[in-house]
Amino acid sequence: MKIEQIYTGCLSHAAYYIESRGEAAIFDPLREVQPYIEKSAKDNAKIKYVFETHFHADFVSGHLGLKLKTGAQIVFGPTAKPDYEAIIAKDGEVFTVGDYKVKVLHTPGHTMESTTYLLTDENGKEHGLITGDTLFIGDVGRPDLAQHVVAGLTEDKLARLLYHSLRDKIMPLSDDLIVYPNHGAGSACGKMMSKETTDTLGNQKKANYALRTGMTEDEFVKELLTGLTRPPGYFPKNVLMNINGYDSLDAVLQKAKKPLNAEEFELAANAAQALVLDTRTPADFAKGFIPNSINIGLDGNFAMWAGEMITDIGQEILLVTDGGKEDETLIRLSRIGYDHTIGYLDGGFNAWKKAGKETDSIKRITAAELKAKYNKHILLFDVRKKSEFDSEHIIGAVNVPLNEINNHLAEFSKDKPFILHCAGGYRSMIAASILKRRGFDNFADVEGGFAAIVDEKLPRTKYICPTTLL
């Protein structure tokens, strides 16, 4: 059976492509659909179906774009109610793609419409499961997202549905089936996913805590709900875009691809109250940037942090990027529904400097310099996740996770100096840019973050610091 996983690391996302005898299907595509169209053209195949496992929260799917450009039919599982034409399949219904068969298994739990697709090859042998967010490698989908969109749903109700979906629909299937999930490690759609992106169902029955033999429903619910962190704020907005529809990517990019010189850029920023988003590396940003801009580097988990820190999905945005990175930035923003970029600085930050415009910078220190300054009176803020902080942190550090920073601004001093760090310097520079924008100046960021701090052997503890902000 020909099945290809198309993995996008920025979102920890996997789409799938199957092709047989001139017919193809795509499962859970990203919004930029041209790569799928080119892949099918190379195989001299027509895309017949776009199968969706559920209404996604962490990205805007490309199902509408594929339907528009190829005529492919969109397929959702039972109970889905999109605001556009689509096939709403019945549980057990079978679709054909050339000599392959795709069987619908309704597996509610992550969401009510969540569906797993059982793939059968040209010889009639069941080959694999495209599980969406129902079953990951090492984990299962979190059941607390749909409640933010559908009134009356609770995470407890969804968790109990997921328990039965796994045991009634998936676990009875053959151990040699290959599991093809929608996400891998790094996605916020689960809490402990493996770095592996496929496995056999038999291995998962042995290794995945959620498939443990003899596990009661109450035990499953307790283990599944324990340790869930707050989902990113843009998730419910992406769900609604996937349900209601959205502008074509071509239209979004046409509006956004507007080069502006320094004067035009400044006028646009002031007139539109646009957010200036700088996607260069933390090191480059620290050396110099446009005042009041926010740094979220393309080289990290850009989409996730853009969606987490830019709270208004309708916010107008102006971009500062490295040369040639404009299109990539726009596409990665559009993947999570940020469709309101109104232009970019032609020539990047260097053009701003050459125009004699005002600039700002952020002080950075090495871990060795931090060690020299370190004492019990130093104000040190660790912006890693609470779980990272609890695992190990510098004695005396205060934990303010990056995604909570706007709720804890009162903890930072505008008079007394303080120091920021994260794991490697990416998140702390996002925090630094936000604090600068809020009027904080008397601080420094640690180059290399906690990894460099460990190398310098600063005093650390693996116990939760009593000053930790929850």
TrEMBL record:
It holds the Pfam family Rhodanese. The keyword Nucleotide-binding does not apply. Keywords: Hydrolase, Metal-binding. Transmembrane segments: none annotated. GO terms for molecular function: hydrolase activity. Residues 270-361, 374-462 form the Rhodanese domain. Its EC number is 3.-.-.-. CDD domains: POD-like_MBL-fold (cd07724), RHOD (cd00158). It is an enzyme of class 3 (hydrolase). SUPFAM superfamilies: Metallo-hydrolase/oxidoreductase, Rhodanese/Cell cycle control phosphatase. InterPro entries: Metallo-B-lactamas (IPR001279), Mito_Persulfide_Diox (IPR051682), POD-like_MBL-fold (IPR044528), Rhodanese-like_dom (IPR001763), Rhodanese-like_dom_sf (IPR036873), RibonucZ/Hydroxyglut_hydro (IPR036866). It comes from the Bacteria. PANTHER family: PERSULFIDE DIOXYGENASE ETHE1 (PTHR43084), PERSULFIDE DIOXYGENASE ETHE1, MITOCHONDRIAL (PTHR43084:SF1). This is MBL fold metallo-hydrolase. It comes from Flavobacterium arundinis. The lineage of its organism: Bacteria, Pseudomonadati, Bacteroidota, Flavobacteriia, Flavobacteriales.
